[in-house]
Amino acid sequence: MELLSRPDYMIGSDSISAGGVPHPRGHGCFARFVGRLRRRHNYPIEQIIQRVTQNPAERFKLTDRGVLAEGKFADLVIFDSETINDRATFDDPIAYAEGVPHVIVNGKLVVENEAVTGVMAGHAIP
Questions:
Q1: Which of 23, 62, 84, 105 is positioned for an S-S bond with 121, CB 3.0–4.6 A?
Q2: pLDDT tens digit string along 26-59?
Q3: d(CA 89, CA 84)
Q4: In 3D, which of 97, 14, 76, 81 has the Cα closest to residue 45?
Q5: In a domain, 50, yes or no
Q6: Which strand ranges, in their side-by-side order, compose the sheet holding 115-116?
């Protein structure tokens, strides 16, 4: 918890899908981080969000991402801070997180009511 108190603290995931069975944290990393900090430690949701959005964007100089502002990419995860939790396991490493009904990537709805829409709105960031 000491590290989390630092305003520049951030988390990230380096999981890749290069064949074989992926590690469950590839799908569950952020839901687990947000859910556990919120429920177990009652950490302020605003600071949790900053550590997974704004701080990494600033660190990696992604000036068009990380905050909600005009002219920035609209990447949003709509979730319930009381129920968000990862479901990924080694038996089912790509299980969708609970408490995350909607995901918007580049302004397009890619998950609606916990179902993938089929819209391919993302791209690699150079």
A1: 105
A2: 888 999 999 999 888 888 999 999 999 999 999 9
A3: 16
A4: 81
A5: yes
A6: 76-78, 102-105, 108-112, 115-116
Q: What is the largest CA-CA distance in the chain?
A: 42
pLDDT, residue 124, reads: 84
Is position 106 within any domain?
no
pLDDT given for residue 103 in this prediction? 96
Q: Does 125 fall in a domain?
A: no
Contact 69, 116 (CB under 8 A): no
H or E stretch covering 110: strand 108-112
Residue at 115 is within a domain: no
Domain count, the chain: 1
Confidence (pTM): 0.85
Residue 44's domain comprises: 3-9+22-74+81-99
Tokens representing residue 116 in the block: 């993938």
